[in-house]
Sequence to fold (107 residues):
Amino acid sequence: MLGDFLCDSPVYQEVLEERLEKGIEKGREEGLAKGREEAIQQQRSALFNITLDRFPELVRQVNKAATTVDGPAILLQLIVKISTAQTSEEVKYLLLLLTEEMDGPEN
Fold:
């Protein structure tokens, strides 16, 4: 009986609604983070397969570089650039540029 009274109170309902909204937001954030990580892993896998087909001698270097990238947009650019590269020297140059970009300007 007291429980029914508390559950029906406006304050309890407001607190319950706030908790529900926070739970939904937290779930959304966790879902987005998981989806982003899965997309990054798929892109790294695609990059690995493209490199293995086109430049097998550079698989280790490309994989090492790909693991330092955590942005899907950068990985997508790398996929496109390596899939259209004509020579292994071009790929090495791309990896050098990527490494310099990831390290930032030297002081």
About this structure: The mean pLDDT is 88. Residues 10-54 form the longest helix (45 residues).
